[in-house]
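ok so I'm stuck.
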Amino acid sequence: MNICEQIEFDLTGIKKYFDLICEKFDENPEWSYCHGSARYNAVVDIYGCLEFWLKRICDFRMDKDALKLTHKDIRGKNDLSGLNKYLEKVVRIDMSLVNKQYFQLQSLRQVRNVVIHSGAHSEEEKVNKIEGVSLAGTLLIISPAFIESSRINAREYLIHAATA
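replied:
not stuck anymore, here's the structure
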């Protein structure tokens, strides 16, 4: 199985798991933590998969192209930014072809940080401005469309990085 097939397999597995879990919690009100829990897990799973494979792709390219710098040597505003910068500046991949996906994945990163660091609660209005994300009081409400678009964008971004 090549890297693209592995990425597809992992992201498809996340979708299958998400769909199964959602069936069990759909009867709860949308504003309940229990209802959102499957979506919070999906956000964390998709971002974790993205970060894992992105680092592997950077390591693979470093070895393949005999590069002296690793992705750990490049800093960005956040980890995703640093990895993207590594692919652009060091590996010399044209990542502008997946800019739309990259910016949506930055939104995924912001949502993931709220889930991980604040228990899915936020008072920041900028989170409320992310398409597919809203607040019920301070609790994040994440739409299934946000989950699916994040999964698709992660797939497209990773496949581009792996094959360019």
